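Protocol step 6 of 9: fold each sequence in the batch and record its structure tokens directly after the sequence line. For illustration, a two-sequence batch is reproduced in full.

Sequence one:
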Amino acid sequence: MPKVFGFAGYSGVGKTTLIEQLIPRLIHSGVRVSVIKHAHHDFDIDRPGKDSYRHREAGAHEVLITANRRWVLMHELNGEPEPSLEAQIQRLSPCDLVIVEGFKRSDIPKIEIWREANGKPMLYPEDKNIVAVACDVEIDCDGLPWLPLNNPDRIAQFILNTFVHD
């Protein structure tokens, strides 16, 4: 099983941007990284008129598109409940580390991303799964590590020390 941890925080605090900066740093350290991103709305990666879209519209349960550079599997839930985070992790190919974006209420260790300017409350006082806070201003996190949000090298090292090489 890979190591799993998440980033929690409200919309607009920079979770995706930080993850985008961390992935190449972690890969450079020899870590094979996968990401699970939770979408809070009815998203679709397919487009009307494409063959795969037409197959799904015709009722296919799954459509796998493959090419020489990537493949994607689209699975239609057709009224079934959304699979749990644990079920989604099991679907991933072998890797060393799974970064989860979203699923902020999940029972996995998380780094909270917080920006004072966002005007939202912090999650860590209530969420006991938060192991550190990455913030754009230095704050007292009641004993949790504070990570400078604008220093992805330091955050990557924290992730390596805490989740990969623990």
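Sequence two, same batch, same settings:
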Amino acid sequence: MYKVWILILSLLSFNAFSAPKSEPWPFWDKHTQSTQSIDHSQWQALLDAYLVERGENTLFRYASVTDKDKQALKAYVSSLADIDPRQYSQAEQYAYWVNLYNALTVDLILDNYPVKTITKLGGLFSFGPWGKEIIEVAGKPLSLNDIEHRILRPIWQDPRTHYAVNCASLGCPNLQTQAFTAENTEQLLEQSAHAFINSDKGAKLSNGKIQLSSIYDWFAVDFDGEKGVLKHLARYRPELTSFKGKVSFDYDWKLNKAN
């Protein structure tokens, strides 16, 4: 009976995860023509110190982060929380939200380290921490889901956002070695899209079949459906232009940690 109960709980936990819809939050759909920039140098310093490249992955050295740098990360997150991003340009806002999402994710892992996967951080009946409100910006409590699915996806409507936000998992598009800025966003989005689609975790081609990241299944609507997914992939990997074979999906939720 105990084993049956554990199985039921695990199934409930897994089924609790479903791809959230893109639902705009009008409060955040405002911007100015300001040329003022937001400082992300603290985040860049942490990336420089703890993010390493290993094959097709970038991995974070969570176990090596010092107490001083953990506090530096929290200070950076707090500094972003004190900003009303609506007072900035759209380009500055996009970098703000991506960096905030990624910094919050790393902070969550560090607060709970060691952990094998981020999916274990959501509690007994939750698959991951994404629905929990963990920060307040401009007087609004926000979850990671709010940032990704109610701000980034609906306002910018750019499928490459899926290559920008990182969920601390091996199956996820890599956490970029550079902090996003208004000036480098386009370069980083193109760079990360190309790298992911040409990696096995993005699109593994073998014997006339292709195994795609589950991202292309969960969020197919952002790529204009199944045909749009293949068209998008072919843009960065021309060999897939005429692909007609069998498609499957997979995702590796193991933590993106460097040993």
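Proceed to step 7 once all outputs are recorded. Observation for sequence two: The first strand starts at residue 51 and ends at 54.
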